[in-house]
Design a protein that fits this description.
- This protein is α+β, with helices and mostly antiparallel strands.
- It has five helices and 26 strands.
- The chain has a four-stranded antiparallel beta sheet, with no helix packed on it. Strands 5-6-7-8 form a four-stranded antiparallel beta sheet, with no helix packed on it. Strands 9-10-11-12 form a four-stranded antiparallel beta sheet, with no helix packed on it.
- It starts with a helix and ends with a strand.
Length: about 400
Amino acid sequence: MSFEQILPERQLKELQKSVLDFMHTQGYTESAAVFARESGNEGFVADPTDRHHNLLAKKWTSVIRLQKKIMELESKLSKLQEEAPLSLRRPSSVTEWLPRPPARTKLAQHRSPITRVRFHPQYTVLATASEDMTVKLWDSESGDFERTVKGHTKAVQDVAFDSKGSIMVTCSADLTLRVWDIAADYKCVRTLHGHDHCVSAVCFLGADRLASASRDRTIKIWDLATGYCVKTLVGHAEWVRSVDVTPDSRLLCTASNDQSVRLWDPATGECKADMRGHSNVVETARFAPPNTYTCLRRLAGLPQPPATAADANAPGQFVISGSRDKTLCLWDTASAQLLHTFIGHDDWVRDFVFHPSGKTIISVSDDKTMRVWDLATGRCSKTIEASQHFTTCIDFSTVSPLVATGSVDTE
């Protein structure tokens, strides 16, 4: 690329005259004459009073000073990054990151306690559900408030996104579930009726069905396209608090006020296992992802199957539950046996999330803390003050290294 392509004609002429002035000043008269002729500046006369005099040297000195300043600033930035709290640094991978205080952002728009926080699976969007009957959406990176989704007439208990992030589903104490089309500006496209009491939780059962849990003691399976309930699962004696599904949609697990965790075949409605060991209400239960299996088998003293075994990483082998008895429990779904109890919280365990690394879980509690548990040892490796009030829910972003928690203090 020539100078003519880089510099406008006026700046090119100034550069040529500055070079000629420098050559005359340094005594390169013959070279200057050749350069003047070839550059079309034959009439140039060096003049100490001209603005081009010593301009090249001044520019060169300025560049040197600027380079030095840049190096100094880079050094200061590196030092500040080393001294900054670890919570402000971004690791190279989500799987390497663990939350550290203080909280990066506090989101304050709700007027009542937060019941659920849920990250969008594709975008930097966080949805928060509240007892104020709304769902609010936030930019999870900046913390900026984006919109309020209204429609329910009582507390919103749960919110879920489909795997593609094109549909959002909510459930409420108004006995309904609502389906929202994200592409259509979060328009409510369907309202599902069928439960006889507060709808506590909802999850996607594949791409075309939903599973919901309710205070009416049932779990319902819904056809997303028609909005019809296609199956009702009955077995719990009290309020069903949560529902979760394996990635292949072949198994559900539910948690209940009756102090049990149950496994279900959603295709037949059959209860496959009734797991008991908690001494109070079970707030939540979730299937452990396959990347946790190595740690969980080590924790439970179970043999590690050969890596080539067909079912070594089959989904749904373990469930972890959290309870008002202040503990979390690890269950073997094949035998329905309690394998380990995580002890450390001082009040109700309200929610937990699996870390993407497969090595830890992070739980929240009415003791106002967030605790990190090592799945290989079962020990609490870190305790973080999460809120000034009861901490009700937690989620981990799959897009960036962020954890969100919700509290009864509306933040």
